[in-house]
């Protein structure tokens, strides 16, 4: 199958909102008058971001989910995306699963595939996504203020636990492994929550490299520090509720520095707690208050009684560390 | 050097037109009211689209040039782009050269780098570019009409000749090789010409995979055939003027099916010849009339006297052929 047949069979569908989709030199998008365009690119590499033998349907889902998660973190409404794909060979089974997983999630969010590129090479998936947001309403990393609450959505740490299990570092009961693996391979982008938090959250980002490392981006850009209730964060982890016994270090590593969570971490004024909870309710997404923004620099971990914990160096996952 | 330092050092510059650049979950772009957004993605893979040891400055230039060429083919004005980069390792010499070549061309076109991604993996460069175009004025592949002239910009075939020389298939005198190699490694995107052809050209695309193969996309989408004066096309090749003696087959292969030209092929009504020439003059870009759109299907090659040539199968370069 040639490049053009491949695109026609798996990645071409009638355009809905776009003015022109796959098949010309450029796609053409309509952007509603007065809206800003939010743009993000993510590149996923086999062996680094996913196992080469992962279910292609899950991979298709995740490839778009990580990009939708960036729009969510900006409070932007998904519009469209491009897909550039480097494939070692044409594997129709793989392409069918990948495109189904990808397009099913795209449909859920009304986000259409408008163009891209395919080529032969080591497996690499690069998606660039477009959303729209009214000027001044995007959620930025730089808006946290001293005294703001710090919140996270959903559950943290389970994706990393699944990864550790797949790498043989930890043994999980089958049911728990299944749940955790779902979090690793099929994350849920918090798009509805990001939209609901416009005008409420003072800053936001998505947790992709580990909570503490990612949170430090907000703190650096907002020129502030933070106090984080480690126990409150630990309680967000699904596996923690299972009765499973693991070393404390491992729990903390997963939940504080695990990565691949694709949850939102955000700040909001303490006076806006009711609004945050109402936004979470409307988005049908659980949120947990895990700390507050402080003067100074860096993150201090505290226990449930607010007492300082000796913090290990939880290095965020850095792609060239 | 970590991922964030790498981005800060080589790929972060103050935003000009964008509302928000590198460093948040999304970049934010302003799109002028009423304009459509033209979007294109290209992925370049080491060993397939370029030699791993190519001058990184040239590679930076070419990576953006191929995307600017897609905007040119749509008649869109460049706005901004994202860069996703997979690197085997952090090589500062390479990064410096690559970013300089990339950003120098970006500056020439007022096209700013607003975001992207970096990761570790086999060398892979994915750029997504954004431009704007008034609704209804984009140049499409589908607009050619029977009787239209067929034109190409600039010179064709020299990039392929350089590639053949680098692969040891042909020997070129040093001066000629230098000129041809410049065409292969540093193509000039015809952005000004694309803009000048709005309202004049009936269809357009950029020649990246070889003239005949690319032209067939216009013809299929326009439900037409074409007659091409092979000799007129051959005369566009720079090397053809050098007195170099090569087999006829090789000349034809380079110019008709070579690829990597990044010139525009376009159609325009025969009555618009003066307008085409004026547009080319204003864009300071040479154009050559090479044929006409006909009834039926497929491309017929004719000689300078309009007599049919026995056409070999000039397969366009297909990435999965």
Structural class of chain A: alpha+beta
Strand content of chain A: 15-25%
Overall helicity of chain A? 25-40%
- Reading off the top of the CATH hierarchy, the class of the largest domain in chain A is best stated as Alpha Beta
**N-to-C SSE string of chain A, H for helix and E for strand:** HEEHEHEEEHHHEHEHHEHEE
Main pleated-sheet profile of chain A: 6 strands, mixed
- Output mean pLDDT of chain A: 89
Which homologous superfamily in CATH is the superfamily of the largest domain in chain A?
A: PurM-like C-terminal domain
Q: If strands are numbered along the chain, what order do they take across the biggest sheet of chain A? A: 7-9-6-10-8-11
User: Which two chains have the most extensive interface, and how many residues on each?
Assistant: A-B, 72 and 72 residues
User: Can you name the CATH architecture of the largest domain in chain A?
Assistant: Alpha-Beta Complex
Radius of gyration of chain A: 20 Å
CATH topology of the largest domain in chain A: Phosphoribosyl-aminoimidazole Synthetase, Chain A, domain 2
Protein name (chains A, B): Thiamine-monophosphate kinase
Enzyme class (chains A, B): transferase
Pathway (chains A, B): Cofactor biosynthesis; thiamine diphosphate biosynthesis; thiamine diphosphate from thiamine phosphate: step 1/1
Catalytic activity (chains A, B): thiamine phosphate + ATP = thiamine diphosphate + ADP
How would you portray this structure in words?
Two copies of one chain form a homodimer. With 321 residues, the first copy, chain A, is α+β, with helices and mostly antiparallel strands. Chain A folds into two domains: 131 residues, PurM-like, N-terminal domain (60s Ribosomal Protein L30, Chain: A, 2-Layer Sandwich); 162 residues, PurM-like C-terminal domain (Phosphoribosyl-aminoimidazole Synthetase, Chain A, domain 2). Helix content of chain A is 34%, strand content 24%. Chain A contains ten helices and eleven strands. In chain A, helix 3 links the parallel strand 3 and strand 4. Chain A is globular and about 65 Å long. The two termini of chain A are 40 Å apart. The C terminus of chain A is likely disordered. Chains A and B meet through helix 1, strand 1, strand 2, helix 2 and strand 3 of A and helix 1, strand 1, strand 2, helix 2 and strand 3 of B. Strand 2 of chain A pairs antiparallel with strand 1 of chain B, so a sheet runs across the interface.
